[in-house]
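Dear colleagues,

I hope this message finds you well. In preparation for our joint manuscript, I am sending the Methyltransferase domain-containing protein (Stentor coeruleus) sequence together with its predicted structure, so that both groups work from identical material. I would be grateful if you could confirm receipt.
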Amino acid sequence: MIKVLILLITTNAFAKIKCESFESCNNLHPAPETQLYSLETLQNSFYSILIEIVLNSKLSVHEFRYEAYKSIIKYFTLNFPKILVETGTSRYGEKACDVEGCSTLIFGHIAKYISAKLYSIDINEESRKGAQSIIDKYHENIELIDSESIDYLTHFDYGLIDFLYLDSQEFDVDVEPSQKHYLKEISAAYPKLSKNAAVMIDDCGFHKIGNCDLVQEFLIERGWKIHFNEYLRIFTRF
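The corresponding structure tokens are as follows:
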């Protein structure tokens, strides 16, 4: 009962946020706080509002990462992550979302409205400068980390990681260096992953050649499942 009530309040809060974010809100009415809904109904409401606020206003439905973001947001509605970590920040800030994906913007936006924390790791000074506009907007929910990712993940001690996004490497025809780097990242982070954690990786490729292969082997050997499989790949334990 407590969990349902919390979700109900959260959904009402999102409804108000949505109304502040769009010019026309005539058809949106927050659910009465005294009315109880099933968990499925509340999750669907949460999911729909996030999709409209976060994705449709920031990312084209034609961008090849769009469906992956939809999938991970839906997974979030089932697990409500509190700690999110990404390796590689959005170096162009809020620009070029249809090319770069704007992960820091999207996950920062989500973190704000579910009272979570995003740790965005990038050792490149120019990339961090490029992401500063996003950090300023969501400063209470994003911490931009100047560090080498493997070292930072090894010593991460802010709690269990509920969501890990690996995007510190560029896609290249020679995928071996990136694959090995991601394997080191997941190896460093793995002991810190929560029971319901999800791992998402960018640049997995469209034709079975990409940066994901070694991480996929690592996770599959430990009983993880492929939750979503396109250019981005998502792994979960269940």
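For the figure legend, we might mention the following. The chain has a mean pLDDT of 80. The chain has ten helices and seven strands.

With kind regards,
E.M.
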